[in-house]
Amino acid sequence: MRAFATDLAHVFLSLHFYAVCMLAGVTIAAFRSAKDAPLRRWRYRLACAGVLYYLASAQIVSNGLYGAFESAYPVPEVAQQPSAATTILVLTAGTPQSTPEGYRTRLSADAVQRVIAGVDLWRRTGGRLMFSGAPTPDFSDSIAHEMARLAVGLGVPKDAILLEAKSINTYENLLFSRKILHDAGAQRDRILMVVSAFQMPRAVAVAQKLSLDVVPYPCCLQASRNFQWQHWIPSNDGAQDFESVLHEWIGMGTYAWRGWI
pTM of the entire structure? Predict the structure, then answer.
C-alpha cells in the first residue's frame, strides 16, 4: 500500500500529467463547441498536440525506445583469461563544473558505474585500463583523470592505466585513443570498449568508421523490463527519457552528416 501511495504521489507531482490533462480538456471543449466558434477550428491541431505530448511524456513509450538502443549490443561473456595484450577502453561520462574556486570534476552515477565495470573487466583480463575524455575548459583536469583516480582506489595499479584527456565527444574519444594506443604499441590489443548501453550503438559506429576493432561491453542499463500501471501515465521520468532518446537521434544524425559514422 505504501509503494502504491508513493507511485500515486509521483504521478500527481508531475507537471506533464496536468499538461496532458489540460490539452485533453481543451480538445474535448473544441470538439463540443459551436460550429462557428474560433476554438473549433483548432480541434484537430489540439488533438494532435495532445497525442504527441502524451507520447513524449509517457514512460511506456520512451522506455521502449530507450530499451531499443540498449538491446543493440548485449553484455558479452568475458572469460577470466589474463593477457597483457588487452586494453579496456572506458569512455567518460559527465562534464566538468564551474565553481568560484575554478573548474572541478565530479563523477556522475553513470561515470562511477563505467569505472566499476572497467575495473571488473581488468581484474578478469589484465592488460591496460584506459580512460578517455572530458577535459576542463582550462585543461587543468578531466573526467578521465577523476575516473582513473577512482580505479586506482579500487586496486588498479597506476602503471596499468592509460589516459586520454583532450577529447570532448565520442568521435574524438576513439580517434585520440587510437593514436595513444598506436604510440604505446597496443594497436593490436584486444580492445574491450566500456560505455553506457544506451550510447553503445553510436560508439560502435564511430569505432567501425575509424577501423578500430572493439568488443562492445555495455553497462549502466536503465530501461525497465517490468512495466507497471504508472508507466502509462505522463511523467517527468518519461519526458526525461524521451529527451535522452531525442538527443541520441540528433547525435546519430549529426555524426552521419559529419562523416563520423
Answer: 0.87
